[in-house]
Write a structure and sequence with these properties.
By secondary structure, this protein is mostly helical. 72% of the residues lie in helices and 0% in strands. The chain has one domain. It contains four helices and no strands. Helix 2 packs antiparallel against helix 3. It is elongated, with a radius of gyration of 19 Å.
Length: 134
């Protein structure tokens, strides 16, 4: 399994669990995964978690709009999200997991691009003409 699909699977699992807790489990706190102490009010936890998620979404959309490959943009966004969680909430498994998987997606994207360029260079015309852009 690639890091990208691992990130997608983790994202789906965490957010479906969050929605289930939020809507169907009375008295649960779906924001527990972000904090390690009770010192921060729940509304502050929710605001910071929302800001981090918004940063991920906006950064990913902006990078894709500048024609970065989608997987690379998602990896950069996930790394930024995890980094923000580390700043906002300290060291948690969710934050470190996001950073690690995000970096994995970035490295995987780089390796895939290098591999594709190597294949394209081998099949390029020998006259020095560049293949047409698609």
């Amino acid at each position: 399994m690639s890091f990208f699909y691992l990130l997608v699977a983790a994202f789906l699992f965490v957010h479906l669990k969050f929605e289930y807790q939020f809507h169907f489990v009375p008295g649960s706190n779906p924001f527990d995964k972000f904090v390690t102490t009770d010192e921060m009010p729940l509304i502050e936890v929710a605001k910071r978690a929302y800001l981090a998620k918004l940063t991920w979404l906006l950064l990913t959309i902006i990078l894709v709009s500048f024609r970065l490959p989608v997987r690379l943009a998602v990896g950069i966004g996930a790394t930024a999200y995890g980094s923000e969680l580390l700043v906002f909430f300290g060291s948690t498994s969710i934050a470190w997991g996001c950073v690690a998987i995000g970096i994995g997606v970035i490295v995987e994207s780089y390796v895939d691009r290098r591999r594709q360029r190597g294949v394209n260079n081998q099949s390029a015309p020998s006259e020095g003409k560049r293949p047409a852009m698609r």
